[in-house]
Amino acid sequence: MENQPRRGSIAVALGTRPEIVKLAPIIELLGARARIIHTGQHYDPLMSEAFFKAFSLPPPDIHLEIGGRSRGRQIGEAVALIDQHLAEEPADAMIVQGDTNTVLAAAIAANANDIPVIHIEAGLRSFDRGMPEEHNRVLTDNIADLCCAPTTTSEENLIRSGISHERIVVTGNTVVESATRLLPPPEQRAEILKAFGVDQNRFVLATIHRPENVDDRDNLRIILDELGDLEMPVVFPIHPRTEQAVERFGFEALMRPLRVTQPLDYVDFLALFAESALAISDSGGVQEEASVLKRPVIVVRRSTERPEVNGTFAHLTRPGPAIGQLAGAIVGDLESVHARLATLASPYGDGTAAQKSIDALDALLEKVNDTG
Q: Into how many domains does the chain fold?
């Protein structure tokens, strides 16, 4: 019995939809070892609770409720609360994923308590200092004791930034496991299309939520205009931040041509994406999911931290007429575009990223115990 892993010994911090999606396979493999700390960074139930249910995850062990605050307050309050929790209930390790405020806060708090930090999806770089996420991931990579890089490109970014080879392992990306597992079969996808009133390959799926797009009046107006002018129906799951911006700027009329829905659960999202003509999005995760579902995505941003798919599954452009032009070019040659993408492997691995990450974690803990 003394060799049995301690229950709740591995803290896993999350607070947003992408973190839940990508950490779910790791939490499942950890089993009783996992201690889930939910910061509540996404405070809308449809943006978090629905995803716990989809992956059959146990409820969080700790819920911090930091949603609805500014970036600085979110990070500051989360650091203080996680620090207090870890001081009272130490963990053997802290796992974080991606580049959110939650990630940076949990990494700082764990480091302050001499707890090893494992950064899942380490090494991504947009080289755009205007992105808050860029600062979060760079700082977290430098704090982390183990950087799980999804690709060799990410590994090279880490090495160039001075992080030693000993702290890096290339694992692939757990989004491959999650998307493959939850993608419903064709019959169920057909039922979901029917419920949304769209036909296979005859609609666009759009998601826009980044501050550079929705907090900028001109950018948001241009994007909504471009979406509204597309010849195909546009299904638009609206993020709470986007919904608030539309109301603040008085853009309700620009939403009328779109089929606006509340945030989707992950199964519905995957089904719609897999059966769409294309997606238009500013999401990082959607770029990765495109490579799993073999659908093109127009990425509406200044920059991307996922160059592995740019020019194949993803096409980067700023807000403007290029959105409609790119969409028109894809739709005009849709059958061959889909056929070509179907032949391309995802650059994010073979669906074993979670196991490789757990193996690297256990090797790190064994090393820590041997030297401790």
A: 2
